[in-house]
Structures are given as structure tokens and as C-alpha cells.
Amino acid sequence: LIGLGAVATLVPWNAMAAIKPKVVGPASSAVKLTPPPAGRPTVAPTPKTKTWAQPPRRIKLYNTHTLETLEVAYFHHGKYDPVALKKLNYFLRDHYANKVATIDPRLFDLLFAVQNSLQTREAFRVISGYRSPATNAALRAESDGVALHSYHMKGMAVDVALADRRVGAISKCARDMNCGGVGTYYGSGFVHLDVGPVRTWGA
């Protein structure tokens, strides 16, 4: 396993065009990845790194609502593991409606990069993962902080916290990576992370 002190490499989206992520297992279980728009950065291994030499990517999560925990290596030997991805999809399900959606693997890469940059072994405390349209509408009716077209509904966002790191530290780390949306909620004690357009709020 890669040490927690390792520094994640940020590679522009356009440089990733030549890298075609492979998926372990039969084609029927493969997860289709949508190519990101040009000019966007991402968290990924250096193109020159040989497939067999790429370190595994492992994340640890704790769901504050269901009290479930999951620690899994979702990427190893240069490939995304579809079995691990399915476990993560289920873990981040809409627990209100009990609906599962495909989560964008880039979100896991972002969590992995933040985890290593902050050098923490604590599990990410997940406040919100995937949301069905109905659940998002219900939450929006209760709070004006819920977006109408939330990236949570697209499986591209997660709200997290860490027991051993301040909200501001998590937010700054993610903002410095310039990999998507970062919303800082000091009052509620969590940070919104998504792999949509680069933007920030609340900080």
C-alpha cells in the first residue's frame, strides 16, 4: 500500500485522453466512465507509470446515518475493480429511498487524494452521498442550502468530515487540488466535494 505521506499527482484532463481506464472482471460488470471536458485537472497516476507499478487506491468510509463502515481498495494493478465500485455504490446509496446509483469513480480518486494529502488514517464521515430526485427535493424544501440540480443526484458529490481534521483543513486541501466543487459548511461541520465544474463557496 502507498504510504499516507505520498503526494497525489494532478494531471490535466487533456493529458488523460490517452489513458483508457481498464476495469477488472467481465465486460458485463464494467463501469462506463464519461470522458471529462477538455482543460480540466484530475487526480490520477502519472502516464509514464507502468500499470503493474501503480499503487492501489484505498479509502475508508463511515456513514453517519446507517452507521456502516467500508474500507476497500477500489483501484489496483492499474484498473478500477468493479466489485469494489459496486460496494462503494451501495455504501453511498440514498438511504432514505433505498436507491443505489453509479458513483463517478473520479469522486473516489478525489477522496483518496485528500486522504493522502492530509496524511490521515481516519475514515471519512459521510453525511450525504447519492440522492434520488425525490430525496433532494425533500431536503431542499427543508433547507435553502440544497441545490436544485445537485451533483448528489448525478452520483458526482459527497459531503464528508474527518474526526482528526478541521473542516477548514479539508476544504483548503480540496480547493488546492482544483478538481471540482468544494463547499465549506463550518456550522454543520462538513465539506461538500464534487467532480463537477471547478468552483468554491462558503470559504
What value does the Rg take, in angstroms?
Answer: 16 Å
Form type: globular
Question: Between the first and last Cα atoms, what is the distance in angstroms?
Answer: 33 Å
Class of secondary structure makeup: alpha/beta
Number of strands: 11
Helical coverage, percent range: 10-25%
- Average of the residue pLDDT scores: 82
Number of H- or I-type helical stretches: 4
State the order of secondary-structure elements, H for helix, E for strand: EEEEEEHHEHEHEEE
Q: Largest beta sheet, briefly? A: 9 strands, mixed
Strand content: 15-25%
Q: Which blocks of ≥5 consecutive residues have pLDDT under 50? A: 1-33
Strand adjacency order, main sheet = 2-6-5-4-7-8-10-9-11
Polypeptide structure, described:
By secondary structure, the chain is α/β, with parallel strands linked by helices. The chain is 22% helix and 24% strand. It contains four helices and eleven strands. It has helices at 82-91, 105-117, 133-142, 167-177; strands at 10-12, 22-23, 41-43, 57-63, 69-76, 79-80, 124-128, 157-161, 181-185, 190-194, 199-201. A nine-stranded mixed beta sheet has the order 2-6-5-4-7-8-10-9-11. The longest helix is centred in the middle third of the chain and has 13 residues, at 105-117. The radius of gyration is 16 Å and the shape is globular. The termini are far apart. Mean pLDDT is 82; it is low at 1-33.
